[in-house]
Amino acid sequence: MNRDEQVKKNLDLAESFLHDVIDAPELLDSIPDGTTIVLVPDDDVELADANLGTARALLHRPEAGTPASTAETATHTTEGVFLQPIHP
């Protein structure tokens, strides 16, 4: 998958996520303010791997402070990275 394909797929995921939030705004209630959201599809392994790589990079930025848990099955971590499977 090239960069353009990844961007298009992520835009589609973001659109799906936004529709979900519009339909059920309470979905955002469990996400702490200041959280970085990384969308991880459950039906596209290549994109999921790429986005999890992005999440790992975000966890290890110096400005991110103490790295969060790398448990990828968690729906969120208290250190500011939210991992959520999206069903397009």
Based on the model shown, name its key terms.
88 residues, 2 strands, globular
List the helices and strands and how they pair.
Layout (H helix, E strand, L loop, with lengths): L2 H21 L12 E6 L3 H15 L21 E6 L2
Parallel strand pairs: 1-2
Description:
By secondary structure, this protein is α+β, with helices and mostly antiparallel strands. 41% of the residues lie in helices and 14% in strands. A two-stranded parallel sheet has the order 1-2.
Strand order of the largest sheet: 1-2
The total number of structural domains is 1
Tally of extended strands? 2
**What's the quaternary structure here?**
single chain
Poorly predicted runs are: 64-81
Offer a quick outline of the entry.
The protein is α+β, with helices and mostly antiparallel strands and 88 residues long. It has one domain. It contains 2 helices and 2 strands.
